[in-house]
Each structure stands twice: as C-alpha cells, then as structure tokens.
Amino acid sequence: MSKIKNGILDGFSGKVGKVVGSSWKGIDVMRILPASVANPRTKGQLNQRARFGLVVNFVAANQRAIEIGYKSKAVGKSAQNAAVAYHLAHSLQGEYPELSVDYSKVQLSSGKLAPPAGIVAAAASPSGLQLSWNTAGYLGDPLPADMLLVNVYHPVSGFAACYENCASRSDGSVVLATPEEWSGQEVVVWGFFVSAKPASKTKPNERVSATAYAGTVTLL
C-alpha cells in the first residue's frame, strides 16, 4: 500500500501499479519498475551478448595500439569504447554461435594520415616477421619520417605484441622479433603510421593513419 504524505499533489511512498515512490536525500522521487523479460535467452539476445563479448575481448587484447590509434576519438569517451563501437558495427562476421572477427576489416586506428600502402607481412627466421610497404605514391601530406606502429595478434592466446616507432615511412621494410612461444603458430598483423609532425602543428585526426591489414602469417 502506498502512503501520500501531504496531499494528493505531494510525494508518496510505496507502489502504485508500476510506479514506486520514495525519498532520496530529502527529495521525493518516482521510478518505473523494469519490464519483465519472458525469455532472457532468446537467440537474438544471445547473439548480441556474444558479439559484445567478442569485441570487448578483442579490443582489450589490442589495447596499446588502440590507445594510440583512437586517441582523437577519445572525446567524452575512452579510446577503448570508441574502438568497441567501431568493431561492433564493422568487423564482425557470422551469426551466433558462429561469430568471429573479420581481421581484414579491423581498424586499430582512426585518422586521415596516409596509411602504409601495399603492406605485406611474411615469416622471418628465427621467430620473427618481415614487413614491407610502398614508399612512393603518398596521398595527402605525409612525411618520410612518419613512424610505423605494427600490431601482431596471437588468436590462440588472445595476446598481442605492439611495436611502436619500429620503422619510418621511407624505410619500406622492417624485421621484428616475435615471442618464441608463438613459433609455428598463426598470427595476424596490422600496421598504421603516426605523424612525425609536432602535435601542435597537426589536427588530432591527422596524427595517425587508418590501419592497413598486413595479413595472417604462420611463424617459423
């Protein structure tokens, strides 16, 4: 039973239908009881939960690269949240329970700087990767000194190795050492450039390039 304290137009305590009245810090407040869900485990709900969980785990695994790559998007939200929103909308494939990340659509960065064109990854011996990219035909206003960030993801363990400032745009290639425990296993490789210009002379969305997919490689 609800109780009206000071007349019909004043606050009340208790429940009237789906409305609950109470007092919080001396203020009369009302709230609507949440609607009951007849079947909280429908296929659609399971699909949405699985999609969200898959993306959150993927973003967490590649957090270091995302912190740099989505810095310009971290306005009123974190870089991780911006990345989760992007990948939920663009990088998933399949339906529950056969959901997976489409690695070719992953973007660990978001910016207008010219990306690594024609980037390709290949296994290098021992326990390493060799990457190569084009050094001519730039779009926009890049610099030869723009620095490459390479992110290597190991799907089996769910861990990633992030290589910051590992080469310049003009280098055209780089060899990176990978964890020995990944030898003989498959990794996924992406790269993006970070501008060599001072932050004071570039707009936030021009600090990094979009991410280029370098391929899936079985390490030696």
| C-alpha termini separation | 73 Å
Instruction: Specify the biggest β-sheet.
Output: 4 strands, antiparallel
Q: Would you report the number of β strands?
A: 13
Strand proportion, as a percent range, falls in 25-35%
Structural class: alpha+beta
Pick out the low-confidence regions. 6-10
Rg, nearest Å? 25 Å
Short description:
Helix content is 17%, strand content 33%. The protein contains three helices and 13 strands, in the order E-E-E-E-H-H-H-E-E-E-E-E-E-E-E-E.
Could you explain the architecture of this structure?
The chain is α+β, with helices and mostly antiparallel strands and 220 residues long. Helices cover 17% and strands 33% of the residues. It is built from three helices and 13 strands. Strands 1-2-3-4 form a four-stranded antiparallel beta sheet, with no helix packed on it. Helix 1 (43-61) crosses helix 3 (79-90). The longest helix is centred in the N-terminal third of the chain and has 19 residues, at 43-61. It is globular, with a radius of gyration of 25 Å. It starts with a strand and ends with a strand.
Strand and helix map with partners:
Elements: E1 3-4, E2 12-16, E3 19-24, E4 27-32, H1 43-61, H2 63-69, H3 79-90, E5 92-93, E6 100-101, E7 120-124, E8 128-132, E9 147-154, E10 159-168, E11 173-177, E12 186-194, E13 212-218
Antiparallel strand pairs: 1-2, 2-3, 3-4, 5-6, 7-8, 8-11, 9-10, 9-12, 12-13
Helix pairs in contact: 1-3
